[in-house]
Design goal:
Length: 173
């Protein structure tokens, strides 16, 4: 997953407007324009598409943390210059104030199962012997689970059948 995919998905999951996105950056004392945000949201094949850098995504995620958890006193955390999926996953966990069980339930919504031990490996320090890099599939499943949780009407629901009182069957979505 690239940074633009991640920021687009987060924006969609929480239904953030341009002004809310701009506010997210301002919460960590960083200024962005509506044009920048618009260019990041464009699809990769659009000629006006502009890549979102690691530092810009880290800044946005820090702003999301401040938005969801409240701005802490004093100087704001410096955005990482290099991001990986483990850092992104950790920042989303902090922003949403998720415990292990919350993450496991969210990932399960996306149809993926994970144990607590496997999950904790993503949040360990890279030099720890049980550290495990978070692959794109895991981050994608977590974001999909968030979407299903926060925007349940956005996902196609599986069809099911129920029986009327008169014994006929109707299919519904």
């Amino acid at each position: 997953m690239n940074n633009n995919d991640i920021i687009r998905r987060i924006r969609y999951i929480f239904d953030f407007s341009d002004s809310q996105m701009i506010n997210m950056f301002s919460l960590v004392d960083h200024e962005v324009t509506r044009e920048q945000i618009s260019d990041w949201m464009k699809k990769d094949d659009d000629p006006a598409h502009v890549g979102c850098s690691d530092a810009e995504l880290a800044t946005f995620l820090n702003g999301l943390i401040n938005e969801k958890r409240g701005k802490k006193e004093g100087p704001q955390a410096e955005p990482e210059q290099r991001l990986n999926n483990n850092i992104i996953f950790r920042k989303l966990r902090i922003a949403l104030n998720f415990k292990d069980d919350d993450i496991l339930k969210t990932i399960e919504l996306a149809g993926f199962r994970l144990s607590k031990g496997e999950l904790s490996a993503f949040f360990r320090k890279p030099n720890h012997k049980h550290f495990r890099p978070c692959m794109d599939q895991m981050l994608r499943n977590f974001l999909k689970g968030l979407q299903l949780h926060y925007r349940p009407d956005s996902a196609k629901r599986p069809s099911f059948q129920w029986q009327n009182n008169n014994g006929t069957t109707n299919a519904h979505r």
